[in-house]
Amino acid sequence: MVPTITAFRQSPDRGAGQARDMRVRWALEEVGQPYEVRLVSFSEMKRPAHLALHPFGQIPTYEEGDLVLFESGAIIFHIAQRHAGLLPRQTNQRARAIMWMFAALSAIEPPILERETALLLENSSPWRDERLPLIENHIRKRLAELSDSLGGCEWLEEGFSAGDLMMVGVLRRLNRSGLLSEYPNIAAYVARGEARPAFKRAFAAQLEVFTASQGRN
Fold it and tell me: Which residues contact 204 (CB under 8 A, 6 or more apart)?
């Protein structure tokens, strides 16, 4: 059965591939699973039909028969469990790959999202200039810890896994910040993820949606 995911009809990142449907697209491409995409507008995301799929009115969602999922981490974990290629078969290695998925979402992503909030929603607030350096130092601390853990390795564990997919997906939100360049092994790690053929296919697919939306305007 071909699953259906939801994505922005007009992504606010202007085709940069940072919306969370990109992570799900990438996972599906990695395992060779065809999928369909239903595009939704911001107003449609708050209507009952979409809220029945995602109670918080966001994207992505994932529909496969009578299974409906939301949250990109849960969706990717489901994909990785159902298809070979994203989780190692060996029990301990598999557990560590799953651990890195959680680390990406719980340790690395929160301060990155806090930075985005400060830049986008608090730009005119009097406390923004004092708060932003504190947030960025928190991000640096996390990046330094991740850099130490990665060292000179190609991936977080022995081979590419869902943990790397999720981690690279999170770190890409810093691509325009200049922060990644302070940690050369992390910047190279992200570049390796973006060089994967499955990533390129997923990126091209979501960019096509944005390009088409511009043509309609």
Answer: none
What is the arithmetic mean of pLDDT over 154-169? Answer: 97
**Confidence (pLDDT) at 217:** 57
Match 């979501």 to its residue by tokens: 206
Three-state helix/strand/coil letters over 59-78 = CCEEEECCEEEECHHHHHHH
Whole-number Å distance between alpha carbons of 36 and 58: 18
Output the pTM of the full model. Answer: 0.94
Tokens standing for 122? 């608090």
**97 CB neighbour count, 10 Å cutoff:** 26
Per-residue pLDDT tens for 77-106?
Answer: 999 999 999 999 999 999 999 999 999 999
Closest CA relative to residue 186, chosen from 202, 205, 170, 162 = 170
Q: Which residue from 105, 136, 143 is spatially nearest to 119, judged by alpha carbons?
A: 136
Name all domains of the chain by residue range, CATH numbers in brackets: 4-85+198-216 (3.40.30.10), 91-196 (1.20.1050.10)
Q: What is the DSSP letter of 182?
A: G
pLDDT tens track for 119-129: 887 777 777 77
